[in-house]
């Protein structure tokens, strides 16, 4: 029942004038490839913005947001100096192999500032599209961070352009703005569209499981390391949502090579990630507690509340939480979830609980956003994914987005605990405002995972006042309190979960 995220897989049914614009941008990019590899990408984004102006999304473009973000960035300069305000260093990664990927940081359409040294394009051998931003931070020498969005099938340019890249294109704005908190300020980062067939990566999707995905990525990674001369670098991997499958499998595959020249995997970060073995675990089981905790955002009448409480009780959801979301855990979760009867049939009411609540929330608030439950009207269209969330498939191409044929088991079975044990450096963070993947679902999955020779966490996140929600943590917006145990750090935060992971 996992709800597909909105991605860079939207409809591109352009009118003729917009198609002409995109074709011109592509021709310009091909003509001067060494200066600007990403003109097709920005051409796409320009077209998306034009789509908003022509009615394919909300007309509520808010140019004032750009000025506000820039103003906020300037006001923080005293306490958090922006290295981008200083002259950029020489191109440290420019060589005979990487020249063809070099991006002219002053020639990106609609970006009226220099984004600095970066490299982008599809690797000719594996055809995975990437955009690499070296860090100006001298302390980040000999290390690289990989960023992956989820989906499955979401472009990692969502993370680049709307979360933590050097420049952002926030929803509702008419042009990109500089990001004074870009992750590349701290360390070098590469955004990768993977597996093949995702985003701007070309080729026909052929993989059927995470092991094949990891093998494909490692082949591309070796070429990437050789291209930019990164042999012996420490490698960190991070991602969100369905990257809770991608990252652990890729990280574990790197560790299993015992090759520190190319695969010196040193840590992993997962945000609002899919790690468990049943999406019901993430959605319906924690949903009543989620609604009750955020009651002001779910102002249901007593009749509907009685209905979902009765269904929750009949399905045994709250009972399961009471028995298994405890510290330390008493046992693994039952092999059959409560809504499954002895003959193997599934009770429809149990599997429908999450959908009932979503439908009721939308009736009360047409602007309700299941990815960020505090969002309010008017909803602003996203230049990377219109409100309609229409899927985009190139003519004659096989669809990758939201594929349901992943033959691998959940990452908590062996990939994730293996990475924890081998690196002793894994962070799992989760947003409190996410209805698609409620935090209690992730905590329940962690309590069902064995690592470091033990099942789950033995303490309730080192806090003193447990919430009814079953989470023991200080909930302060944009801040988190970490629980550390056997080198796994778990945090629950109240910041937003993006629509496409």
In short:
This protein is an alpha/beta fold.
What does this entry look like structurally?
- This protein is α/β, with parallel strands linked by helices and 501 residues long.
- The chain has one domain (1-279, 382-501): Alpha/Beta hydrolase fold, catalytic domain (Rossmann fold, 3-Layer(aba) Sandwich), CATH 3.40.50.1820.
- The chain is 31% helix and 12% strand.
- The chain is built from 13 helices and 13 strands.
- It has a nine-stranded mixed sheet, with helices on both faces. The chain has a two-stranded antiparallel ribbon with strand order 4-5.
- Belongs to the peptidase S10 family.
Annotate the secondary structure layout.
Elements: H1 16-31, H2 39-53, H3 63-75, E1 119-122, E2 129-133, E3 143-148, H4 157-164, E4 167-168, E5 177-178, E6 189-193, H5 210-228, E7 234-241, H6 243-256, E8 264-273, H7 279-282, H8 284-293, H9 302-315, H10 317-324, H11 348-364, H12 415-423, E9 426-431, H13 439-446, E10 450-451, E11 454-455, E12 483-485, E13 488-493
Parallel strand pairs: 3-6, 3-7, 7-8, 8-9, 9-13
Antiparallel strand pairs: 1-2, 2-6, 4-5, 10-11, 12-13
């Amino acid at each position: 029942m996992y709800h597909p995220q909105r991605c860079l897989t939207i409809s591109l049914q352009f009118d003729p004038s917009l198609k002409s614009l995109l074709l011109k941008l592509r021709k310009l990019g091909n003509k001067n490839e060494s200066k600007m590899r990403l003109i097709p990408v920005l051409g796409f984004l320009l077209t998306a913005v034009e789509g908003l102006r022509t009615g394919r999304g909300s007309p509520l473009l808010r140019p004032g947001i750009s000025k506000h973000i820039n103003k906020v960035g300037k006001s923080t300069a005293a306490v958090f100096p922006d290295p981008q305000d200083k002259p950029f260093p020489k191109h440290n990664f420019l060589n005979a192999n990487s020249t063809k990927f070099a991006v002219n940081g002053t020639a990106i359409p609609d970006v009226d500032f220099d984004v600095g040294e970066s490299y982008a394009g599809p690797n000719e051998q594996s055809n995975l599209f990437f955009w690499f931003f070296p860090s100006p931070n001298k302390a980040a020498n000999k290390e690289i961070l990989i960023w992956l969005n989820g989906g499955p099938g979401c472009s990692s340019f969502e993370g680049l352009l709307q979360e933590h890249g050097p420049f952002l294109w926030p929803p509702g704005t008419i042009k990109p703005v500089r990001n004074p908190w870009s992750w590349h300020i701290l360390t070098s980062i590469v955004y990768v569209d993977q597996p093949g067939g995702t985003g701007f990566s070309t080729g026909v999707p052929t993989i059927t499981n995470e092991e094949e995905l990891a093998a494909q990525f490692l082949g591309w990674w070796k070429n990437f390391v050789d291209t930019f001369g990164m042999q012996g670098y420490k490698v960190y991997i991070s991602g969100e949502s369905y990257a809770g499958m991608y990252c652990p499998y890729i990280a574990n595959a790197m560790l299993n090579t015992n090759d520190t020249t190319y695969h010196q995997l040193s840590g992993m970060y997962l945000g609002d990630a899919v790690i468990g073995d049943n999406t019901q675990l993430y959605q319906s089981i924690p949903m009543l507690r989620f609604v009750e905790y955020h009651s002001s955002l779910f102002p249901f009448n007593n009749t509907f509340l009685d209905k979902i409480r009765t269904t929750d009780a009949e399905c045994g959801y709250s009972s399961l939480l009471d028995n298994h979301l405890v510290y330390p855990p008493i046992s693994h979760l039952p092999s059959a979830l409560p809504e499954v009867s002895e003959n193997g049939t599934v009770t429809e009411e149990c599997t429908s609980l999450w959908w009932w609540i979503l439908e009721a929330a939308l009736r009360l608030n047409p602007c309700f956003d299941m990815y960020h439950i505090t969002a309010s009207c008017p909803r602003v269209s996203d230049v990377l994914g219109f409100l309609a969330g229409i899927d985009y498939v190139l003519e004659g191409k096989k669809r990758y987005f939201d594929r349901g044929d992943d033959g691998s088991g959940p990452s908590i079975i062996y990939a994730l605990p293996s990475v924890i044990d081998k690196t002793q450096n894994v962070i799992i963070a989760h947003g409190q405002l996410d209805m698609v993947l409620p935090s209690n679902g992730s905590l329940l999955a962690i309590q069902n995972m064995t690592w470091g020779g033990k099942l789950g966490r033995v303490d309730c996140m080192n806090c003193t006042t447990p919430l009814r929600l079953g989470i023991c943590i200080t909930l302060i917006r944009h801040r988190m309190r970490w629980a550390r145990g056997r080198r796994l750090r778990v945090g629950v935060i109240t910041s937003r979960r993006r629509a496409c992971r």
